[in-house]
């Protein structure tokens, strides 16, 4: 449903949220080692997340990433996806047509509109904190 970059961003954000704090930044090496995500793509994704103020980053030998100013409960899944993929998931035609709206719908529009609305609500109302809840207790699993 998401691009590879958005999936990587979500996984990296979950790992950062679980393992960083105000006084502990996680390094790109730690993130890659524990998430098994590709280095170059993950580094670029994390730069984009930092630019969009989803994660905080510090450069240099003691640098890394954390979620400090943004609390995990304040970061929606929508914010992460939009930072990486833009608004296409919410606004683009499911069939890829340039013109598709309630006024001039594509053949799939009437059936897909309620699904898109549910997806949008899910993304808006699911926080990074929601995604981390239960991992330590092994109630939910994220194979990293």
Automatic annotation (TrEMBL):
InterPro entries cross-referenced by the UniProt entry: Tscrpt_reg_Rrf2, WH-like_DNA-bd_sf, WH_DNA-bd_sf
Source domain of life: Bacteria
GO molecular function: DNA-binding transcription factor activity
Gene3D superfamilies: Winged helix-like DNA-binding domain superfamily/Winged helix DNA-binding domain
Signal peptide coordinates: none
GO cellular component: cytosol
Matches recorded under Pfam families: Rrf2
Protein known as: Rrf2 family transcriptional regulator
Species annotation: Haoranjiania flava
Lineage: Bacteria, Pseudomonadati, Bacteroidota, Chitinophagia, Chitinophagales
